[in-house]
Amino acid sequence: DFGRSSELAFVVEPSDDIAVQEQPLILYCQVEGIQPITITWRKNGVMIVDSENAFMLANGSLYVSRFQRVRGDGSSDEGEYDCMAQNLYGLVVSRKAKIQAATMSDFHIHPQNAVVEEGGVARFQCQIHGLPEPVILWQKNRMPVNTDNERYTLLPKGVLQITGLRAEDSGIFHCVATNIANVKFSREARLTVSGSRSSVYKDPMILVGPENLTLTVHQTAVLECIATGNPRPIVSWSRLDGRPIGVEGIQVLGTGNLMISDLTVQHSGIYVCAANKPGTRVRRTAQGRLVVQAPAEFVQHPQSISRPVGTTAIFTCVAQGEPPPQITWLRNGQILETSDHIKLKNNNSTLSIYGINQADEAIYQCIAENSAGSTQASARLTVLWAEGLPGPPQSVKAETVSATTIQVSWKEPLQNTKEIIGYVLHIRKAADPVEMEYQEAVSKSTFQQLVTDLEPSTSYSFYIKAYTSRGASKASEVTVVSTLGEVPAIPSLFIKVINSTTVQATWEPSIKLGQHEGFKLYYRKVHLSHYTGPVLLPSNVTAYNITHLDASVVYEVKLLAYNQHGDGNSTVRFVSLRETVERTVLNPPCDCMKDEQNNKTSTTGIIIGIHIGVTCIIFCVLFLMFGYRGRLLMCKNVQEQLSTPQIPRSQRSATGLVLNGAARRDRDDRDLNGKQLDMNELERLFPTSPSQEQQDKGMTVSHSPPATHDDTQISTLPLDEFSIIEEQPDPLPKPPRGGSPPAPALNQRPANEG
Hints:
With 754 residues, the protein is mainly β. Helices cover 15% and strands 39% of the residues. InterPro entries: FN3_dom, FN3_sf, Ig-like_dom, Ig-like_dom_sf, Ig-like_fold, Ig_I-set, Ig_sub, Ig_sub2.
């Protein structure tokens, strides 16, 4: 790789200029690099031949003796000039320099007469076009205006503002425009200051607001804003997007004009001028757009590189500007055309050259250009080629093995084969760009390679390179071959029984089926050898009904996909309709039309039933709550009734008689008054153990002595029995010897039952 000083590059390039009619013009061009270097000039892309009027100096600059905007033959010296430098390693082209003739037009806006009251504002304007931009000065009564007077403001675009008018400001005004081409005077205008300062209130009003401007960075922008009113309004500036205007390079001219020096792209935006009445919110506004352009400049230059034959060379060129620049590539001064092995990416910022060879060795230039200007940068590609490298592999052949496999074979190069350490097979889909290529390495003793995992029905390109420790050989010839077509994959199959004689076969479409033309459907009884079918179905069909089947046998259903390459493997399913027949016998088919009509009624009935059920549940819960509370009160009453004072043992017989006789009648009377007890409820609330029941039963047949009988009756009979025993009005039997009344019968019912 050569050092930077040896690279062919421009030290000085021609620049834009404005030439004066009949005056000489020099365009500079200075180049460095390895000699010999040849420099030539072009105008508008056409080579300039030395002549009496234009010829090249010894230092490479172009000299135009008498610049003329229009010559006698109709030609012009105006145009775009560039210089080209060439040496042994390539050619570079400079940036384009735009040359224009200095001119000045007539005034197309002249100052106008004005009559303004004292204390008011006067404004004069004159406008003229020219190259370069004319400088405009003002004269009053044919004398230069005193610019030291703060009330006089001269704006670059030919505007004169006079504020706080006085009587001595009256006079005759005109402007003078000057550039290298000419000097011109405008018409005169008279200013008359009338009366005295008025004290009548006047709303703020903007006489002239800012204009839309398009400028280039580092220039100066003047945004005009002049307002009147009584009291005198206060002029302020802001940006419409709310960003601060800043203070650096900002200056206010006169009473409200905004001047921005050394413009940058960040100054672009919409500026708002506001005239405010002092002490109030009364205001008037005007706005103008400022666009700041920036010439193209490089953020990253392309770098010269050296690469071995067969490798990839990449140049990167990143530029910025406003508006964003367009990037163009040149190869030895000519527009670079892309191809299979030359690609431009990332909006032309990246140049990639694949599989380089000696023909790619050149100087590559990146040209960035926008409406504000252009720039260029260059880099050289050196292709490394070692002596004694192998020649390209010979007799490259590719044979299709299957839908996904290709066999590639080749022979040794014709010369310099001793240093070969291996081969590299380059593989790419024929329709893909070069950057999608991939490689497979092969040992030096192998002259064939089986390439697998390819796509069916697809064309592939192959070429071989032989490698040594010093570099790679040239590429072999490219061979292109296609893989075989592939039959479709196995489709999924599902069987659904519709009725006793019909089944439905359904399957799912899948991208794995590949390019298939359709499906074939077969079916048969399992005990038979021959299928019914095939039923040919198009590729967009995913279901088929098989009818008129025998419900007593099992059927086999087979489905496969097919295309122009043949039939794919099939999917087989077995189905029996016997269970469907049995279900039909047990559950006869419904009248679907009738059911459908009844569904609406059933739905209404279900809703009504739900409401009724909820209502019943609520009533049941309330009933149980209040019923449980009543039972507790009754049980408490029973306990109070049965809680009698203790009496001596000698009086217990009489007491038992009272409890089972007169006392019972009193209780019956109370029950009839609303405190009746339910026998079942009391038995649930006060359960009796089996032993107690046995004792109770024994009491009815016991013939023990009176004293023992009395103890057993009192100690074993539960208290709740007294509240539920009912005795019929039978005649009382004679008391036993002890004088005790007989025990009550247990199978009697309460008198108040029912």
